[in-house]
Amino acid sequence: MTLRDQGPLQLWWRDAKVNVRRAERLWDHVRRPAAYPPPRYAFADGGFDKLHGWRTVTIDRGDAAADPRLEAGKHANLQLAAPCFDGLVLGPDRPLSFWTALGRVTAGRGFRYGMELRGGCLVPALGGGLCMLSNALFDLAAHLGWTVLERHGHSKEAVPPPADQPWGLDATVFWPHVDLRVAPRDEVRLACRVGQGQLLVDVHGRAPAEVRCEIRACKDQTRVQAGVRQRENELWRKTFALADGRLLADELLVRNHKVLLHSWQQARNCLTCGEVGCHARVRPAELVAG
């Protein structure tokens, strides 16, 4: 059921469940502070001069269905979020928590409306587009052999990944209970910046990387059920020692199950769909006026 099919009572119940999960996660921050360590930064290189990996992500969707107002918001949100991760020091006992590093997204901090995929609809949301950053961070963590403590895949897919990237190597975030938490093998420093329409994320260590990883997809299948296109797979990771090539681990990394949106669904959002009877419709005044 998409958002536009839900009535006021269903939407209220949905919001109530989200608030309960938020409260549970915030209590978990109090109960287990070591799982969400406060950010620590090293703005000079601090001896982190060995490159372990990097990702360069083009921010623009580059298709006719992209709404320019939401695309502009996505750019602004990533520019605002990047400094919160730039210089961040992580270690086996100091894992990354996306929301601990970034903090809550609010208009008062300057965040703008970008696209968010919610309940089968493309909805304007404060901070929309930040999943591009969580995707890049998880992609790096997976390929560098980091421990995945918490990862949530998108339940629906509007824009497929590049052809050279394994399908399903993504991570969605939603404050504060849908988090991305990963721990590196050794102490590392992140570099994160936005420039020339690209998001750039680097990982540096004090010593060269000690492992290399191979990620493979298994049980990949696409099917149509009750008129809905769905795809699922498993991603497995082999970790090898760089020194002698020994296989250190062969493990299940993630399981994915996503609804695949049709092209006409990707082109619709709350600003353009025209469904005035939808109780979940979001039309921020600043976007409509713009």
As residue ranges, the low-confidence spans are: none
Query: Per the principal axes of the C-alpha atoms, what is the gross shape?
Result: globular
Q: What would the average pLDDT be, to the nearest integer?
A: 92
How many domain modules?
1
CA radius of gyration is 20 Å
Biggest sheet: strand arrangement: 1-10-9-2
Number of β-strand runs: 13
Order of helices and strands: HEHEEHEEHEEEEEEEEHH
* Amino-to-carboxy terminus distance: 31 Å
- Strand content range: 25-35%
- Major beta-sheet overview: 4 strands, antiparallel
Number of helices: 6
Into which percent range does the helicity of residues fall?
A: 10-25%
What this model shows, in words?
It is a single chain. This protein has 290 residues and is α+β, with helices and mostly antiparallel strands. The chain has one domain (3-289). Helices cover 24% and strands 32% of the residues. It has helices at residues 8-31, 68-85, 98-102, 131-143, 263-266, 285-289, and strands spanning 50-58, 89-90, 96-97, 113-118, 121-126, 147-150, 156-157, 181-183, 188-195, 198-205, 211-225, 228-241, 247-260. Strands 1-10-9-2 form a 4-stranded antiparallel sheet. A 4-stranded mixed sheet has the order 7-13-12-11, with no helix packed on it. Strands 3-8-6 form a 3-stranded antiparallel sheet. The longest helix has 24 residues, at 8-31. The protein is globular, with a radius of gyration of 20 Å. The two termini are 31 Å apart.
